[in-house]
Amino acid sequence: MVHRLTWYEPQRGDEYLREFFITGLMDIGATLILQDAEGKYSCITTLPMRFRLTGSEPPTDRGLFGEDIGRRLEDMKARLRQPGDHAEMEIDAGDDTFFEFRCRMITMANGQNNLMTVVIDRTEDRRRERLLRALLREVSHRSKNLLAIIQSIASQTARYSGSLNAFLGKFRGRLHALSQSQDLITDSSWSGAYFRDLLRQQIEKYVQDGAADLIQVTGENVLLTPNASLHVGLALHELTVNAVSHGDFVARRQRIEVNCERVREEGKDAVRITWTEPLGPTDGEAPARSARFGSTVLERVVPASVNGSAVHEVRPGSVYYELTFPLDAEA
């Protein structure tokens, strides 16, 4: 027998098909209800546990679904009079559960009109929709933050660049550092990035393989918030590029010491990151070195963006940078 792309063997019998359909309805979380034209119930399958079905009295909409939902169903069904008439509505059943009711007037094989109602549990669908909306809001929030960071970087880079080529070189490098940090944040489902992963990204890009062991990392591998990850990654980029471009730690085979640790600042958990880079023995180079390291990004942009503070000094024999900020620093 073929009817609207439906086929079955009539000789299988009603019992065989009944078991098949009920099992299928249970699997997809659907309820099928059949009533005659006067509203008398003739069949109910796989009713959800939250609704009541007792054998003491004939079922009714209000008896099955409660006064409020039952009244709304009765009103909707009353408008269905001719075969093909249909209506649907979604109901908040309480306790964060949602059900969709689809009602249709149909003509049975015996020529009688019957009212068919399909009830579908939409609870998981609504939860997924709420999660998706929350994720989209988070994406929008993060995107706006990232654009604000890029705007700030562009402004500061342009202010301290003497030519267009110098601006483009610095700006591209800083954008690349941001994109790498953002990749780490995205891979962690926006929970943030670990400090050593942020440092490793910069070492791999700017420090030759033979010199990577000259950057010694100690302390804790702290998981930083997304906002802190972006800005700490930017600070590490500045420090690494400066050390490679202007320093002599590679030629002299002296280690840069990097440390990250949890501390207590004003009664709150905080993170302290330090960078100690060895300098050559010529004291006369210190003023120029100090001017080069007078980076607005390191001294102003990064600490202000993570609600922290920074120390940036050229000391006898070394360049020292210290960044301290709250552990939960977020935009």
From TrEMBL:
Q: Which SMART domains does the record associate with it?
A: HWE_HK
Tell me the keywords, alphabetical order.
ATP-binding, Kinase, Nucleotide-binding, Phosphoprotein, Transferase
What the entry lists under Pfam families is as follows: HWE_HK
- Cite a single GO MF annotation: ATP binding
Q: What is its EC number?
A: 2.7.13.3
Signal transduction histidine kinase HWE region domain boundaries: 138-221
The source's superkingdom equals Bacteria
Catalytic activity, as annotated: ATP + protein L-histidine = ADP + protein N-phospho-L-histidine
Protein known as: histidine kinase
Q: What organism does the UniProt record list as the source? A: Ciceribacter ferrooxidans
